[in-house]
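Internal ticket #5521
Category: modeling
Description: The requester needs a full-assembly model to guide mutagenesis choices. All entity lines are attached below as received. Residue total reported by intake: 814.
Assigned to: D.W.
Attached entities:
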Amino acid sequence: MSLFGATTGFGTGGTGVFGSTTTDSHNPMKDVEVTSPPDDSISCLAFSPPTMPGNFLIGGSWANDVRCWEVQDNGQTVPKAQQMHTGPVLDACWSDDGSKVFTASCDKTAKMWDLNSNQAMQIAQHDGPIKAIHWIKAPNYSCVMTGSWDKTLKFWDTRSPNPMMSLQMPERCYCADVVYPMAVVATAERGLIVYQLENQPSEFRRIDSPLKHQHRCVAIFKDKQNKPTGFALGSIEGRVAIHYINPPNPAKDNFTFKCHRSNGTNTTTPQDIYAVNAISFHPVHGTLATVGSDGRFSFWDKDARTKLKTSEQLDQPITACCFNHNGNIFAYASSYDWSKGHEYYNPQKKNYIFLRNAAEELKPRNKK
Amino acid sequence: MGRKKKKQMKPWCWYCNRDFDDEKILIQHQKAKHFKCHICHKKLYTGPGLAIHCMQVHKETIDSVPNAIPGRTDIELEIYGMEGIPEKDMQERRRTLEQKSQESQKKKSNMDDSDEDDDDDEAGPSVQQVAAVPPQAGYAAAMVQPGIPPVAGGPGMPPGGYQGMPPMMPGVPPMMHGMPPAMHGMPPGMMPMGGMMPPMMPGMPGIPPGLYESSGMPPHMAPRPGMPHMGPAPTAGAIPSRPTAPVAQPVVTKPLFPSAAQAQQSASGAAALNSHSTAASSEPPKATFPAYTQPSVSSSTSSSSNPSSSTVAKPPATVTSKPATLTTTSATSKLIHPDEDISLEEMKSQLPRYQRLLPRPGQAHAAAPPVAAVGGIMPPQPGIPPQQPGMRHPMHGQYGAPPQGMPSYMPGGIPPYGQGPPMVPPYQGGPPMGMRPPVMSPAGRY
């Protein structure tokens, strides 16, 4: 992608890898480093929607901030703005017109950040940290959905302090995804609930988890007609389940695959199994990317049921990832995710966000 | 042959026609001789598995099974132990064995008396009934009856047993002719015939074998699911006798096994992939299903099966049981995740440095983690007036005003000062904003 050249952005950032002769294991894939990365683990990444010209990336972190960068066509990243919460930011998303960014934090609030005025105001309140936040744009309503560790899923009209709807969940929300008219929430204790959003959000179905371990991330995928038809669910056990909502033949269509595990070719050493931290679908090809605690990302084709690529191993886990609106850029964040507990946390270690050209590598494989 | 009717036919290798005492040994032989990768020496579980491994890992194609006799080199035929052997080859084998045994029986008929007696005893009443019946018919009957019980006893599928019979039958007449002298020959004769019965009945719609497969194939599930996906055509074509192989799950549900029904649900390919290797070898097919239903995390291991490649497991499985979501460390795998039932974020957020930042009731804490100069104040916000704009939170006060306080926050101090919207708190003493600047650390600017 680009020259790392003179960065106009403020902050130190980007002295990068490009200059060094040896390949640091912090960026073995030699991808573009985003300048001015956050100072603590990055919890979420999101690119601006197609309604906005250009590519803007927002990233929330455990340093309580959410930052916005402009990603230029030559690959350079320019830090643009930042907002703070009073607690670590766990999730962030864009509104459909790209003018607002919604951020969710451990401080039990969610905020709406108006980028034009660079003002943020609180729009939601929970009794516990908010883990997931998504913007819903329906023909007859628009709202923000927040899922929290207080076991509730609330829907907010940003103009009112009270939620327009509050749904009780069996357990704490661990991850969620929304593609109108479908929403999926995965909770603690392997709970999995699908909601339908037409008219107003309501619980559609509770699904028995296809996975046997803690749910960690979920992403909805669409069919050829661009309608949401199923989701990919990742667990802490290096496994992703592809699950269709109404498949013609569930036994055949739904499946799971293993990923993010250390090589066990040498069977004498135990195989290390890592958590899948995030899953993202390519907006054009429908192929998916998974990132894990092992510090690798992988691209998969769920229809051909094959792996397309696995990256080299970074020296830190990869905690978040996302594609931009046209699928040309894949962003992934390298920071510690606590998978090895407290002892391995090194506050001095730098956190990174990398950008990779995703146009070619995620093309689906032709089915034989 | 032996006195005991072990599966009525000694396990033999389809690829090289060698005999073995035990199916386990047969499988080890196949893995080492026929399913071993010539490049990296990795042992796979089936021919197609080997082909896929070579393709995926080494980018090489292989078109014949190593060390196989001519005519038996088909790489696409999925054979595991005694399963998957095409019917006609089975019959051929039986015939060859019969011929061999006929010769040896004629020679040894005297010595067989004792064996015969033993076998008669084992076969029980059915054999004696047979004796009363005209030899040929009786023989056939005898073939059938003793044949069935052991089979039924095994996988427990009497109807299945019958299905296996027809293929056998053609084999019977020839036997019979040769056999009249051979009621004695029965035991040895039984073997090849009975050979049809044992769990690997290629003719079966694949129920017990289906079971067996799913259970017995764990190690292969890994390459195998890869196979159908990678090369659906070849495998599908190549496994005529086991049409259900890749789709073992749906077939498995039909049956007779109540546990199988559960198994199908829980058969998350995961389970399929893994626990098998142990389950299959140690337990009869029936019991392996319960193994399926158990979440046994050990199932997550299968380190032996293509861990580096993406193993795509078919079975969808809705897990019927909800096991505790705890990590497991087994001999072959280790979950890199703290052993608790909460998420990584929950764990991390419990650290004091993150806790301190939570807003105190009624007050807003504008706190910065001790580390960074987080006072990331964007130029547009001079940090002073800010309390108003954006302060307009509909909620009562939990707005953490970013601009203020951040830099002023002393690590370790958890001042109750927080500024609430009404601001003020004593700490500032003075116009809420006004006081700040002095305290602000320059580093606060970005």
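Resolution: model delivered.
Comment from assignee: Residues 86 and 221 of chain A are 33 Å apart (CA to CA).
Ticket closed.
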